[in-house]
Amino acid sequence: MSSTKSSESALKTLIESGEFLNKFNLDRKTYGLVFDKRTLIAVYEVIKKYNIDMFDFPISSGKESVVFRVLSNRKPLVIKIYKMSTLKFSNTSDYILGDYRFEREKLNRVNIVYIWARKEYTNLSEMRSAGVSVPRPLGFYKNVLLMSYIGTKKSPAPQLRYVDNADFNDIFDAVLDNMKKMYRNAGLVHADLSDYNILYYRRKIYIIDTGQSVSIKHPMAHDFLKRDVNNICSFFSRKGIKKDPDIIFKSIVDG
Ligand SMILES: Nc1ncnc2c1ncn2[C@@H]1O[C@H](COP(=O)(O)OP(=O)(O)OP(=O)(O)O)[C@@H](O)[C@H]1O
Ligand SMILES: [Mg+2]
What we know:
The chain is an alpha+beta fold. It folds into two domains: 3-148, Phosphorylase Kinase, domain 1, CATH 3.30.200.20; 160-253, Transferase(Phosphotransferase) domain 1 (Transferase(Phosphotransferase), domain 1, Orthogonal Bundle). It has seven helices and nine strands, in the order ααβββααββαββββαα. It has a five-stranded antiparallel β-sheet with strand order 1-2-3-5-4, with helices on both faces. Strands 6-9 form a two-stranded antiparallel ribbon. Strands 7-8 form a two-stranded antiparallel ribbon. The radius of gyration is 19 Å and the shape is globular. It binds adenosine-5'-triphosphate (ATP) and magnesium ion. Residues 53-255 form the Protein kinase domain. Its EC number is 2.7.11.1. This is non-specific serine/threonine protein kinase.
């Protein structure tokens, strides 16, 4: 099959997945799950550039993004598409402007979504170089991000909140170790860390969803880190593992 033909069929699969509900009127302003025309074109560019030959299944469809498992040369990957219409300017600008890596960006309602996807890509790359366990970032274009897939042929790795029958002492140690590497080696704070944004696969954790992660020089970095530590401690406390958030916070920041 020629590559044009296969990318066309990938696009068809995507359209038929139900995310493009008003596919007959793509110029219209979009609501709910529907993508706008710019997003459709961006997805098409990613399909061509990265040889995506199949949209396998949707993994998650949230308020601000849609995540699909796709196949590229038979390898499973993940495409995360930020929704142009619902990614909130007010929720995102603070995480961009306070971060010296992005503070020179001129923000408007359209490009903030593109910057957000690029920021997630940059954060994944910097975390990965620092030894943090995250999906491998493979590329981005406009509001579309491509990364490695964590999970089996049939189902994506579960979020930590759905995991039973595991050694939560070991998992806690792994989460803390990754938070330390993120802070000390990458110089970053996740800023939305919880049992929702950690996947568990073959006894290993993977930290995901890093669009909002900021440099430790961000004026709010320590507030974000405290919130992350509190989320993590309260999750593990429900699993019977009681840790003092103040001590954990200090152990990350002071070493
Ligand atoms: N690389 C991946 N491999 C497997 N599953 C993934 C991957 N990335 C994301 N997911 C799944 O998709 C879900 C949503 O992804 P993510 O947390 O990055 O987006 P989100 O910003 O929380 O989405 P929303 O705001 O729309 O809820 C994750 O909770 C996870 O279940
Ligand atoms: Mg998430």
